[in-house]
Amino acid sequence: xxxxxxxxxxxxxxxxxxxxxxxxxxxxxxxxxxxxxxxxxxxxxxxxxxxxxxxxxxxxxxxxxxxxxxxxxxxxxxxxxxxxxxxxxxxxxxxxxxxxxxxxxxxxxxxxxxxxxxxxxxxxxxxxxxxxxxxxxxxxxxxxxxxxxxxxxxxxxxxxxxxxxxxxxxxxxxxxxxxxxxxxxxxxxxxxxxxxxxxxxxxxxxxxxxxxxxxxxxxxxxxxxxxxxxxxxxxxxxxxxxxxxxxxxxxxxxxxxxxxxxxxxxxxxxxxxxxxxxxxxxxxxxxxxx
Length: 290
Hints:
- This protein is mainly beta.
- The chain folds into 2 domains: about 5-150, no CATH class; about 175-285, Beta Barrel (Cyclophilin), CATH 2.40.100.
- The chain has 3 helices and 20 strands.
């Protein structure tokens, strides 16, 4: 039996898998890895099932000591990992021996780094998922110094590849595809136009729940009615009274009472989850060519 001893946690490190979908009716959000493409890539590199649990480290700073031989991978934000203070490649299969120290640096690009161990992180599932939901408080607590994270048995055969080309650095501004609605008719035509024509940027108020955006000016509503509470999804651009959109991410609330002017395409959410404060965004209708 092998495990990973947590030496440092960084700003926030949580256990994540592909979430717990299908529970919105009982008030439970989906949660799961904010950047599922990076989570899936990390699992693929060590031969895990796609839903095996990984570690999601926000802005780096995670250090893990291997107890027993472990096979790991590091993906997501480009975080300059080292083993025993020697640089090692990310997006590659790495083999650790007892006592080896993996350190995740501060990312040069991106926000969230994923560490997979062959067999997955073995913590008790809640409603079918090992994910930490920071909004609902479901799943394991955020990782803390001294934790001993057992390596499980959620593996398949060894992968055919031990290296995956890392994704390209996102453009600035990054283009995110959106579908207008369901409440775009609650906003003035000028505000709908502004959503698609002006630049927005990620503020420092961003976490796994969502990213608050700022722009050249707020969005204005033309309807002042009270909106009944309705379901929310990851990617929803909810507009509170300030007129500054909030882009909901993995731990978004299952319901909300502010109108949603548009929803970001699911395929673009991994990119959105890696945007750091200050990064600029342009929204484009998903039927348009970039």
